[in-house]
Amino acid sequence: MVLKPLGYEDGLTGVFAALADPTRRAILTQLKHGDATVAELAAPFSMSQPAVSKHLKVLENAGLISRSQRATARLSHLEAEPLRTAVGWLMDYRAYWAESFDRLDDLLDDLKGES
Amino acid sequence: MKVIAEPGVPQVVIIREFRAPRELLFRAYTEPDLVKRWLGPAELELVVNQLDPQHGGRWRWTQYDSDGKGYVFHGLYHGEPTPERIVQTYEFDHAPGTVYLNLITFDEADGVTTLTQNTVFFAVEDRDLYVAGGMERGIRASMQQLDDLVTQLAKESNS
């Protein structure tokens, strides 16, 4: 397969590292329903707010969320683009093999016809 | 086809079923004339330079893009390749020392063969780099489509 560094794989690595943690995936899922404060995000977990803040920092560094100030609370917001890139990566890898294996299906039919 | 790529794990597993006996799949994987008929997307021309399916045997192939630029991959077979399993290492000749390991198994039941391709990399970074190549191909294909569209539009406006 054609292999060449493109410059954005560092970003992608950060995205996958951030997604590797189940708590962080749960936080992202929660943010799909709308922006939330640290206290709101900490509620479903038996975890302190500073511990949740640490996870939010990782997600923010990976570009998966952005944070803004509302009155006295910081709001977290889900950023869809890096997730789409991560999915796109998988799609293309999938496309490479899906296409190869479709061609292999045709070849196997030919070989079955011969025998 | 199922693709399993867990975040943070340097591995990709692909599972695919074929309505054919595994002996035929084994031939498709180990006979040069057959390999070039299916491996890789149709727009890349595959030339099999070497293929010696035995323990310690070497394989080497080149994929040419539409500009005629060649990308060479090579590696070794580890253990005797059989219609049950093939173990081989892979290396892109522009990235010597970055090796990945492929375990391909063929499980046949009731005329259906389930192929499992388990690819293991040194690090998640290596996996992402490998797959980034696929993204480049996707971008190139899109650029080609754009080029075709522009050419087509130019023709239409001339007529």
UniProtKB/TrEMBL annotation, chain A:
Tell me where the signal peptide lies.
none
| InterPro entries linked | ArsR-like_HTH (IPR011991), HTH_ArsR_DNA-bd_dom (IPR001845), WH-like_DNA-bd_sf (IPR036388), WH_DNA-bd_sf (IPR036390)
State any single GO MF term.
Answer: DNA binding
Gene3D superfamilies, from UniProt? Winged helix-like DNA-binding domain superfamily/Winged helix DNA-binding domain (1.10.10.10)
PROSITE patterns, alphabetized: HTH_ARSR_2
Top-level taxon of the source organism:
Bacteria
Domain HTH arsR-type: start-end pairs: 6-98
Which keywords annotate this record? Answer: DNA-binding
CDD domains per UniProt: HTH_ARSR
Record-linked SMART domains: HTH_ARSR
> Any idea what this protein is called?
DNA-binding transcriptional ArsR family regulator
Q: What is the species listed in this Swiss-Prot or TrEMBL entry?
A: Kribbella pratensis
Automatic annotation (TrEMBL), chain B:
Q: Which Gene3D superfamilies match?
A: 3.30.530.20
Output the InterPro entries linked to this UniProt entry: ASHA1/2-like_C (IPR013538), START-like_dom_sf (IPR023393)
Family indicated by similarity: Belongs to the AHA1 family.
Q: Which Pfam families match?
A: AHSA1 (PF08327)
In this protein, which residues make up the domain named Activator of Hsp90 ATPase homologue 1/2-like C-terminal?
A: 19-150
Spell out the protein name for this chain. Uncharacterized protein YndB with AHSA1/START domain
